[in-house]
Amino acid sequence: MIFPKDGITKGQLIDYYRAVAPYILPYTKGRPLTLERYPNGVDKAGWWEKQIPKGLPDWVPTVKVKTEYGRHAGDGVEFMLCDDEATLAYVANLAGITLHVWTSRQPKLDHPDFLLVDLDRGDGCTLATMCSVALLFRDTVEEIGLKALVKTTGGSGLHVIVPLEPHYDYEFIKGFSELLGRRIHEQAPDTTTLERSVRRRPSGTVYLDYVQVGRGKTLVPPFAVRARDGAPVSFPLTWPQLEKLRKKRVPDPSTEWERWSLETVPALLRKNGDAWKGQWRGQRLERALQKARKLWG
Amino acid sequence: MAHAIWSGAINFGLVTIPVKLFTAVRSRSSDLSFNFIHKKDDSRIRYRTFCEREDKEVPRSEIVRGYEYEKGEWVTFSDDELKRLDAENTQSVDIVQFCDLDEINPMFFDTPYYLEPEKKGSHAYALLREALRAANKVGIAKVVLRNREHLAAVKPNGDALVLELMHFNDELVDQSDFAFPPLKAEVPPAEMKVAKLLIDTMTSEFKPEVFEDTYREKLLALVEARARGKSVPAARAKTPEATNVVNLMDVLQRSIEESKKGRSSTGAGKKSAAKKTRKRSAA
User: Fold this and answer.
1) Which class would CATH give B6-27+86-170?
2) Distance (Å) from the C-alpha of residue A231 to the closest C-alpha of chain B?
């Protein structure tokens, strides 16, 4: 029983990941994997596992990541790569409830292939505010010729993502993410905050966390299960869906996001497919930056 | 306003004054604490408890407290056993005697708290305060805070009564343990005169607000600068947000230009990638 309150067993977790394998694998392939493991259930202590676990079967693909600096280089850390359904099932069997993957993929681990801003819900922030900020992100990047995608985090926030060609280094992407974060905060100073200290964030705001991309930093991929009661799943949404949700009067977005869970997602995927399907196209940032300089300078 | 630590009463003789207890010292270190972070990947460093003998991680449930009463010899206690020693949470300040304020060496005073009267205690509160002030006395009291009994003084402080926790006698290190020059040491009158003059010229009213914790200020500036992704020059004036966006765009543009020149700032170090960039912007 790994979700004791919901009566969900590890067997069900394995079934889930096998069912969504065709949908989740495109987002995990080639990306070093970190696991959040809860063998004793989500109400007991779990841990994060980066290095490959002991006794890893030899059919599970891995990648050795060297540390950046010569002095510490050594052998580096060996990560699993979640490239196929068998690995996914193996990972679920470790009670690896939540998968976390790098923002870059093999063989270009120094060049992230998307840009990410984590919309983190502050106290008192409503569903409408959360959706409005995400839509503002879409409009802001659209203004400079970029397409954005959105998904629930599985908690109470949203991830807004700009898929990229794996061409820019982490520093550049960090800078660009910061640019977007600051621009959005300028446009919506009352509903967003850039304040890192949780205590100092004004209530009712969305925290624009733009420092989520970096070497070794990870993202919960679409369709990963979160280790919380209800077994919520991080779920890709369409922009029209979000526009509809914006009109709802709900005090806490997570009550909406909870609809997408281990128990509901497989059927929803069979019926509607992945909202991001065909949307993930690598984009370049040179033009976008020129436009931004013209429009925002 | 801060939360009251408790609502209770000041008791002495047959008098009871209902009061609330508030902390009077803002802890400023708590918002400046550091976490340990793994340098190479920004991950949190966590501690795991492990058994020295078995070299194995040990769960919380298998850990008890031990007191080393002799080198290498421990007696152990469960949390429950220790809890039984806790003082009963009386939520009261029990004044056991009064004494002259000047009798108490200021070294005994530790941490001040405010005592605020409940509405119905206002009159008695004012009376106690005025009487203490008129007599230049303080109350010596026992009070339980965080499960421990403390010695404390109840002192008038302007319009407030302040409860000041005190050290127990055996907590203070004995002065005679040190080699101080004897009190009656002969001091040449001329030197004394100069010293007094120096003190006089440097004497001015004590204004606590003049003194600032500069370490804290510097550290905050440093954190601010780091958090903005800038390198260190501390204590710089905040740039307005608008300029930030512009600056950022300039930095990003420079990074692209440099990568075109083959220096790999955008990571576009490979020639092919750099070429592609050039073609696109030329088109």
Assistant:
1) mainly beta
2) 25
Q: Which of residues 262-291 of A touch B (CB under 8 A)?
A: 284, 286-287, 289
Whether residue B265 contacts residue A172, with contact meaning beta carbons closer than 8 Å, is answered with: yes
Identity of the amino acid at A188:
A
Question: Residue B283's closest chain A neighbor by CA?
Answer: A287
Q: Per residue in A251-267, pLDDT tens? A: 999 999 999 999 999 99
Interface of B with A (CB under 8 A): 31, 40-43, 227, 229, 241-242, 244-246, 248-249, 251-253, 255-256, 264-268, 273, 277, 280-281
The model's pLDDT over A80-137, given as tens digits with 9 standing for 90+, comes to 999 999 999 999 999 999 999 999 998 899 999 999 999 999 999 999 999 999 999 9
| Residue type present at position A29 | K
Tell me whether residues A175 and B264 touch, CB distance under 8 A. no
Query: Residue A162, Cα to own-chain centre: how many angstroms?
Result: 12
Peptide bond into A107 cis (omega under 30): yes
Of B241, B248, B267, the CB nearest to A175: B248
- Domain residue ranges of chain B, discontinuous segments joined by +: 6-27+86-170, 239-283
CB contact under 8 A, B229 and A175: yes
Note whether A89 and A78 are within 8 A (CB).
no
Give me the domains of chain A, ranges plus CATH numbers. 10-107+216-228+259-272 (3.90.920.10), 114-215+281-296 (3.30.70.3300)
Residue A167 has its nearest CB partner, among B42, B252, B273, at: B273
pTM: 0.56
Rounded to whole angstroms, the Cα distance separating A75 from A63 reads: 11
Smallest Cβ–Cβ distance between B241 and the set A176, A186, A199 belongs to A186
Give CA–CA dist B2/B7, Å, rounded. 13
Q: Does A186 sit within 8 Å of B31, measured CB to CB?
A: no
B236 in helix, strand or coil? coil
Please calculate the CA angle A177-A180-A186 and round it to the nearest 5 degrees: 140
Query: How far apart are alpha carbons A57 and B223 in whole angstroms?
Result: 45
C-beta atoms of A196 and B253 within 8 A:
no
- What is the DSSP pairing of strand B6-12 with strand B92-100? parallel
- ipTM for this prediction: 0.80
Residue B267 is predicted with a pLDDT of: 47
Q: What φ, ψ does residue A121 adopt, rounded to 5°? A: -75, 130
**CB atoms A169 and B41 under 8 Å:** no
Check CB contact under 8 Å for A217 and B255.
no
